[in-house]
Structure formats: C-alpha cells, structure tokens
Design a protein that fits this description.
By secondary structure, the protein is mainly alpha-helical. It contains 6 helices and 2 strands. Helix 1 crosses helix 3, helix 2 runs antiparallel to helix 3 and helix 4 runs antiparallel to helix 5.
C-alpha cells in the first residue's frame, strides 16, 4: 500500500500561494523594515507570515518566515547570516499558526489569544534574540541588548497586535479564512 507523502497534500493553488507569500515576505523584510543600527529593527514581514500561518498552519508560517529571512540575507544583508536568528523566525511564524490556524474566525477568546500570542512573540524576540545577539557579539552583555531592544520590541508587538485584530474582519469578509478554499 502506498503511504501518502508529506508534500502530496500540496496543491497547485497552495504552492502558488506559498510562493507569493514568500516573495511578499522577502519584499517586506527588505523594504519595510525600520532599522536602528544592525541589531534593532522593526520589520513588517509579519503580515505575510501571519496570513500564511493563519491559513495553512504553524509549519508553513514558520517556513515562510525562514525563507523570507534567508532571502533578506541574500538581497539586503545588514550583517552576517545567523542561523539561530533564522530558527527564532521559524518559531515566530509557528506561534502565529498555533494561535490562529483553524481558530482564526472564532470570536471566542479572540482578543485573549491575540494578547497571549503577542506576549509570547515579545518573549521570544527579547529573550532569545537578545541572547543570540549577545553571543554573536553585537552587544557586550545580555542586559545591554535587552534594554536597547525593548522599546523596538514593544512597538513591534503593538503593531502586530493591532494588525491581527483589524485583519480579522477583513479576512472573514473576503472569506480568506474559514472558507473551504484554503483548507
């Protein structure tokens, strides 16, 4: 008996959508990232990562985040490629999928899920990324990295939370989430 392969569930429509989201993520990470030095940045690539994770789940959300990070390193490098940062990007995309995949259209506990998701993303960003940047040598100590990156991290999470809350109604209206087209 033939066992279905993991990638056998990828339809042409899904492949096209994932390719488009990868390109949009790369464009957003290159052109819509506000930087303060090499280590402090406020990116807007979360938009396409969030949409992918909400439509297709944690794995694909994380994969799109990783591909966007790698393309950003190739096309607009602001320093060396740090694989640990890429792994953190995967976790960030997966967190969106864990909180919103197949539950995005539910109004029940929506604000609470958004709040918890944003807090977890803030913890990943501040603790893990600050530790990696200290380890690599961008900052002399973890406390210096944490304190310098905290204002940008709070602004980033605030923007993400507002986007998630506002996008719910638009995505439901256009039947991008919760419909049979993207399942």
């Amino acid at each position: 008996m033939h066992k279905p392969h993991f990638f056998s569930k990828i339809t042409l429509k899904k492949l096209c959508f994932l390719s488009l989201m990868t390109a949009i993520t790369a464009i957003l990470s290159i052109y819509c990232t506000f930087r303060i030095g090499n280590a402090i940045k406020i990116p807007f690539k979360f938009v396409s990562v969030f949409l992918t994770a909400a439509m297709y789940g944690p794995f694909w959300g994380g994969t799109i985040a990783v591909l966007g990070d790698i393309l950003n390193v190739f096309f607009a490098p602001s320093g060396p490629w740090i694989p640990m940062i890429t792994a953190i990007e995967f976790l960030n995309g997966a967190v969106f999928g864990i909180f919103f995949y197949k539950r995005y259209h539910e109004a029940k506990n929506y604000f609470f899920r958004t709040l918890i998701c944003c807090l977890i993303l803030l913890l990943f960003d501040m603790i893990l990324t600050s530790a990696v940047l200290t380890y690599v040598g961008y900052f002399p100590t973890f406390a210096a990295a944490f304190s310098l990156r905290l204002p940008a991290g709070i602004i980033k999470i605030f923007i993400q939370g507002i986007f998630i809350i506002i996008s719910k109604e638009y995505l439901k209206r256009f039947k991008l989430i919760g419909g049979k087209d993207f399942e």
